[in-house]
Amino acid sequence: MTSQYTPLSTKSSVFKKHRFWLAGPVTLAVSIFIMAAMSLWFPPGIAGVNNLVFPLILFPLIWAISFFYSVLEVNIKRAWIVLMLVLSVNAIPVIASMKGWLS
């Protein structure tokens, strides 16, 4: 039993790969929008700063979860759909708050 080894093409650029964009800038944007949306739905607490401090503390965990999901997911289309859905669900309240619609 022999297996065929096909080396990666040297002509293809890293920037043309979908997983590069998904695990890089898209994951960062998703994490930033989740962090921004957390300040809207997280309760302020007794001192009134919990809704600002906890998203900052949890940002590395949020980024790591979305990064490892995008890298380890076998089906790249499903990873794109999931991250775009998470991005849109968190971006809508952030944009609405910036426009003043939530006041």
Automatic annotation (TrEMBL):
Keywords carried by this UniProt record: Membrane, Transmembrane, Transmembrane helix
TM segment ranges: 20-41, 53-72, 79-98
This protein's name: Uncharacterized protein
Organism annotation: marine sediment metagenome
Taxonomic lineage: unclassified sequences, metagenomes, ecological metagenomes
